[in-house]
Amino acid sequence: MCGLFAFLGPRGRSPTCSLLIAPGLHVITLSDVHKTFRARRPLFGAKKPDVHALNGVDLHVQPGEIYGVVGPSGAGKSTLLRSINLLERPDRGSVIVNDQDLTTLSATKLRHARHDIGMIFQHFNLLARSTAIENVALPLQLQGLSKTQRRQRAAALLERVGLADKLDAYPAQLSGGQKQRVAIARALAVQPKVLLSDEATSALDSETADEVLALIRQLRDDFGLTVLLITHDPYVVRSICDSAALLQDGRIAQAAALTELTPDSPLARRLKIATLASETTGSTRHRFVDVPEVSYA
Questions:
Q1: What residue spans define the domains of the chain?
Q2: DSSP string for 206-256
Q3: For residue 266, what are the contacts with CB-CB under 8 A and spacing of at least 6?
Q4: What does the pLDDT look like over 2-40, one tens digit per residue?
Q5: What are phi and psi of 212, to 5 degrees?
Q6: pTM of the predicted structure, to 2 decimals
Q7: Of 39, 69, 84, 174, which sees the most CB atoms within 10 A?
Q8: Which CATH class for the 3-36+50-259 domain?
Q9: Going by C-beta distance under 8 Å and a sequence separation of 6 or more, which residues neighbour residue 268?
């Protein structure tokens, strides 16, 4: 068992356990997922059109991956992410997480399945009148742990994310980066196998965002997590993701491992990746650029 999850309880996992699963198996599989938001008919004026947020999405995430979904605003990224734990229930299609089709589960079984799925949000969603340790311990109260057990686990997680000195601080006393670290600790409190990230760094300055991204990557390595994140920022995907998908108009335009991208592909263009041939070895490598106008001789 890895150190912290071993301390946290019997569901602790080896840092590399997710990588021992046979290649080709998937922790997350979305098949032909559709979601339409029906417009309400107003009392006066013309009815607005329905919004087709997801139009036949297929997505496969392997164990231990950090998988990024990138795309413009309005592409359906948040709806896709919220479909994975059924915060948004698809109109059609299957959502398989950890070998269970969540769309077929009863309310009780779905609640238990969600224990394996942690989630962090853009604006942290912390309780303003609760301290950091109380925020992290809240999911554990719902699981029926004693007050002592809740405090021990929450304190260990806050120490792991670098906030051992902020246990009794309120959100108003924390910086944006510290608030997100509390949110990450809270997401890990129930010892999930999957971590979902909804634009977790978009409200942070660039230096703090880099620190949070590095933390997510380290937690993936330490706990054997599978991470799926959505972002509008190509830099986030380039920084920590193993694979990525480009979502446009509710459809997956391209999905691939970053090492397999060609420079003229839609996903590579979105991520602003240029591929260079090495003059010395003849091998191919990727270079990450922040502006598409940069050229390489």
A1: 3-36+50-259, 261-297
A2: HHHHHHHHHHHHHHHHHHT-EEEEEES-HHHHHHH-SEEEEEETTEEEEEE
A3: 246, 253, 254
A4: 445 544 543 333 333 434 334 457 899 999 999 999 887
A5: -70, -40
A6: 0.82
A7: 69
A8: alpha beta
A9: 261, 262, 275
